[in-house]
Amino acid sequence: MTTETHVKDIKPGLKNLNVIFIVLETGEGRVTKTKDGHEVRTCKVADKTGSISISVWDEVGGLIQTGDIIRLTKGYASVFKGCLTLYTGRGGELLKIGEFCMVYSEVPNFSEPNPEYSNMDQMKNKTVLSDQGNILNNNSAGNDTTNGNGVNSQGSGSSTTPLQGGRAGSGVGSRANNPGGTTVNGKETRRSTKR
Amino acid sequence: MSIQCVGIVTSLTNGLSEREANDAITANVCKGPQQHEEVCLGLFALLLTEPPQAQRCYRDLTLVNRDGMNVILIKINQILMEKFLKLQDVCRTQLVWLVRELVKSGVIGADGVLMTLMKQIAGGDITSKNLWLAENVLDILLDQREWVLKSGMLIAMSVYTYLRLIVDHGTPALLVLRQKEVDLCIGLLREKFMECFIIGRDLVRLLQIVARIPEMELLWKDLLHNPQALSPQFTGLLQLLTARTSRKFLACRLTPDMETKLLFMTSRVRFGQQKRYQDWFQRQYLSTAESQSLRCDLIRYICGVVHPSNEVLSSDILPRWAIIGWLLTTCTSNVAASNAKLALFYDWLFFSPEKDSIMNIEPAILVMHHSMKPHPAITATLLDFMCRIIPHFFPPLEGQVRQGVFNSLTFIMEKRVLAHLAPLFDNPKLDRELRSMLRERFAEFCSSPSPPTEGRDEGESVSLEMDNHVLLDKEDGCYDNTEAAFSDDEEEVNNKGNKKREFRFHPIKEAVIEEPADITPYVDQLDDTMKEKVLQLQKGSDTEAHCEVMQEIVDLVLEEDFDSEQMSTLASCLAELFKGHFRGDVLPDDITEESLEESVCKPVCLVFRNLCQMQEDNSGFSVLLEMLAELYQKQPKIGYHLLYYLRASKAAMGKMSLYESFAQATALGDLHTCLMMDMKACQEDDIRLLCYLTPSIYTEFPDETLRSGELLNMIVAVIDSTQLQELMCHVMIGNLVMFRKDSVLNILIQSLEWETFEQYSAWQLFLAHSIPLETIIPILQHLKYKEHPEALSCLLLQLRREKPSGEMVKMVLSRPCHPEDQFTTSILRHWAAKHDDVLGEHIKALLIKNNNMPRKRQSLRSSSSKLAQLTLEQILEHMDNLRLNLSNTKNSFFTQTPILQALQHVQASCDEAHKMSYYDCEYEEPSSKPPKSRRKAPASSPRSRKGAVTPVSNEEESASSSASEEEDSKPKAPKRKRKGSSAVASDSD
């Protein structure tokens, strides 16, 4: 596996990010709906180097609880409304790998509004990000096929994202149909996306 | 790993008959240890996941394994400790089934696995999964009783576990289960008592909690009166209580997950960063009513098991006492709270420095010590508990418990956990009764010699014959009340409640017959001349004569050859002899010049008078100060008596500053501390005197008083409305200044924590001053809806009298929008009616300023913890609320030019994204303007609520609008505009 990026090293425009963080605030109560019906939550997450906001799409967002330790794979960072924000990229995923036992630092919050980003934001709205189709207010039809979790939106109802299919998602719940042998061998967290 | 093993097993056996399969597996196992392990784990995994094959797999396992199932036992333990919570139901069922089979087969080591399984049963959890596990393990224990009886540790662990679980299973639905649990425990306790004995003192703790159950009651009878019936080696309860509980047992009632999390908190989380971890732990384990019983387990675990290394202890890692403090303060039931306190002190009761560890008793003393400042009520309730547990824990063993607690305290001082206990036991933050109880019980640990009679204790309340009018507070009545409320650990009872009882109502007073003071231990140490004078003081009964003698004593002290080593002894004598002076009220009922002068003619006052008459550079001056300082040690009330003297006596006119010299001469050594202690003492003894002293204290010592929220709280906590009104008059007349611009805000913010009446009083006093409201406006950031109604209502009434300033408007708009919080709307509405032009300009300025700022609402919204920071949304949301509120009136606030301009500015500049996401806010405003402009909005809102609301003040605007955006944005005279828009509006409709 590739190495993990620390929150402090996340910069706008970086792609293919692997980050391990603990969830401090879930977007509960602040669920936004996009035009085409996706739920978007903004969670505050942190590692020992600082905190950042991550934008989580659809059901997965409802499964995340504060205190969850999550590994993000293939994430990317961009600026949304002047704030550095983390997203799940195409083919990426959010995987709960533990809970509670992680030291974090809430400051600095790298998603504090940063005037420097404002210009970039506007620029990106038009160009860079639209090809990833993950900006909230993007309403061009061509992008409907992907959402911020990097999963095909058509399939998102039935396809499995790791956190789907049962709270706690420490892997096992979501694998109700898997051959149960996996539950005991200590490698559960690696295998959940693929069936 | 297991998957591979399953693969190996299935490939070995695929398509074969049972016999052939068996042979194939056996053959494979023989190839070597790796193959052996693979086959075992493969069968194990199959057994867990495929119930239909389980029987066969288990049989194969027993046939082929060559290590007494060791590989399997290790694997089971590993799963139990690391992943039990994640197991699916099927696997859980199978795992429990397997453990039962292992027990049935009498596999060596099965007892260990069973104990690990028992550990998975969570305390304080009556969800069906947990009950299922408790019941299944219980069934194994009951069914395999003969086997159980062979393992001493298993017996003890089962008893400890189920005695504890019984507590959770008290609801009617669970009584059948509970009965089975009781049967198991009673059976094991009666048959194998000495095996259970190894648990140690916590066995008694658990038995006490379930003592009401009939079978347990019978057991208790034997424990107390017939210990031999349980075991010939058992000599009685004391034997058990003096045995330290092994950590194994304290740890066994926490699931591995709880243990991991607690250990993480005490080893990795930094002090100050614990809030979220506590919340998460609370959410998972302590949020239900039945989970309250878990607190005891956690506290016992922290005291007895979590013993951090010195390295951790000296670091900034979250200390144990802080976790205990959290567990105590978040306790929601009284029963759980008193059990939790007992759990905290349990190792104190029979503490022996040889057998017990300082680490077990340290959390209790530290949580009391550290809570004194932030949560005095916690310290008070714990100290109170510590006092009361001595006689109440078990009356026949009172002596031993006292010794245990004393041993603990001594050991704590020896080990320098705390160097002195006096600051803890004799702290002005504790109420009077508690302090006197502490003095009574722990005289040895209150370093200063037992100070003044607080009246309660007959032994102490001796006085002089001469003073027949000594009044003694009859407090015992009040005291009983406190006692009744003891088990409540709520602050109200211990702090506020008590305060009220104590001070709001003057206790009934009643004359008592006093016995002569006993100064024999001291008087012989004085030299002859002095001794003679002191004895004269003791004999006489005439105040004037006393004063004369006192003057002679002062003169003796001032003589050059006075041996200053006698000072302390002399002070002890005087303090004892003048006890009577310090009881009862100082201030005369009718305050006249004469009565005041008379009240300062007591013998003690002679020392004060001499001090006043002396020049500060005189050598006698410092001698007198020294004398007073010594007296102060023995009799702290002398401090406020001096203040009174300096205020009331004509002789002391203008000499208030002498008090500062006095304060510096005392052991306290500084004016602020001394003044606060004395005012506190005064507050406790005599509220009228407190009010009488207040003006001069504030005038004379502004630096100490004006910044002290503590002092103000002392005053407002005890005054009644008459006294409040008097103080307000003092303020208005100019006799008293209680607030200053630079510190008033701070004090008012502190006051938010106070009781309602205290807060109102503080505000009244503040309002009596003429400090501009601007000074305290920033307090608005601290005022939370529903939490601070007192301050909000006071502030609201004040704001309405003001003409809005830019800062005020900004602060008001900075309040978070809450659907029920009408504060902002109320004041805006008022201003919109009275000062529409000013308000309009301010809002315009704010809107434009915020609109020009980078858009940052996304993150601001997410960090709700931050103090109010004004965002555009907020302004707009508040404006919308105002608009809705004004919609039925004829108010034309929203048609003013500045407002329209500002809204246009906002609308024009907000980008697409902004419009999308914050639709509601953005377009609410323009909606109060002509509907047409709404229709022109680039994208129409999915919600059409605004459409419905739009007919704002119809008469004027119903009417709309060629007033398109372009037009609107051009400045126009308001009047003209209004007309214009209404005209066109009717067209368009």
Automatic annotation (TrEMBL), chain B:
Pfam families the record matches: HEAT_Ints3_C, Ints3_N
Record-annotated Integrator complex subunit 3 N-terminal domain positions: 34-440
Keyword Glycoprotein: no
Domain of life: Eukaryota
Keyword flag RNA-binding: no
Residue ranges, annotated region (Disordered): 922-989
Chain intervals with Acidic residues compositional bias: 954-968
Family from the record: Belongs to the Integrator subunit 3 family.
Protein's UniProt name: Integrator complex subunit 3
